[in-house]
């Protein structure tokens, strides 16, 4: 099927054969993952949308694609508006749209392995108002019409050594078992891929940019576990690492195993376990305890070994990024460089460390107006030259055994305009305010979000994404439950040991984008005379912030002092790793304001 019109027509024909009046297409897999393997890229195959978050609904005469503010521009560039209506979330939900557009008495299909139970209940209630019903399908109809759909990865599992993990898998299972006993539960279902990787100290290569393996697990109150993974992914080293307390089964046996908990209490996470898991447990007679996956919080609170590893990864990554920033300063003014050549060069610098396992996400390399596309993904047809008189935004990261990095820098190519400097400085002021924040234990990320936005708001400006997301330890670059955002999360109390991004931005459609991103560690903060325990942030990322874009007259003395202290730290951490030319450039880039 050569065109997206053909693909949409083929799906509608299949729906007619299945006696369905519509179908919902989320961008996820059966593990509710953000980033998914090629076999699960159904939304991209059907629509052309290349973002990492979105959904679609197909009806006989209408079709709509739903994205959040990060993808408002991107979806219009990649998805044909003649075939698809563009809808923004959270302003419009799929349930609301179905309530307005589904045919009365219609049957709307959904794949129960790709949705949460809460979504099913919400959509069912919305459709009931129209006399329509939500229908679970046994086989996803897209899979039936996708002729060259890739097979799931067969890459082998690898052991994540305790010297990186800081805690053995047996210790983690015992802690979960103790938690289960406290909850009077017999077992917990783990379906989130990063939870399974963390719990068993294993990693994989089944999802680009995220070192996880396709698997399910059930951890029991006696600290034993069942791991469901394709047999070809196992080897003797992994089997020995898992030990006798972990029983290994074919991944295909997982669904049937859920029927074996009659009379027992089983924890299943309503946010991360799909509806099909709940239905299988229900039908098997289990008592379901809808509680959060017991790996989520311990995974987010990094132990001292993970923190030390992350700092090592950041120092290494900061040197690679600084070499790249020096390269841009030399090569971009000559002309001839593009978004793609720059992204390739940055990856090469990271590979030269000899320790890069993968990028942590596809590099966002946005020149000029492409920088205003928040989650821009460069490809041949959008590839722009990096030109003098423009801004260049590069958001990138690396996966190393000892840590996961994520950093954004915005660079002036040639002399920036006063407007560029002013708006960059407003973003910088917000970044500094958040970096310097001190707050009581129990504070939620959402309570801090305004610190980063306040200066933009004062000028009638804003950005349509969260300010901070959690980051894993050689795992997902987007990790919950912690976030700094006023929408879509941010309710989790921040705790010492959590790692988050600090990334305010500003985007002028059709002209340029600005973002400054460092990773920060939540740490205990001792304050003389304090009447309650307090927390603050330690900045972990080390790379210079473009001095040419800073409007000094807009910085307070305290803000200027923070930038100078940050750059002094960058120089001390990164400088010794650079050769003469790059080191001389870094010394200039980090000179006091």
Automatic annotation (TrEMBL):
The keyword Metal-binding applies. Residues 310-523 form the Peptidase M24 domain. Residues 533-593 form the Peptidase M24 C-terminal domain. GO terms for molecular function: metal ion binding; metalloaminopeptidase activity. Keywords: Aminopeptidase, Hydrolase, Metal-binding, Protease. One of its GO terms (cellular component) is cytoplasm. CDD domains: APP. Pfam families: Creatinase_N, Creatinase_N_2, Peptidase_M24, Peptidase_M24_C. Residues 7-138 form the Creatinase N-terminal domain. Belongs to the peptidase M24B family. This is Xaa-Pro aminopeptidase.
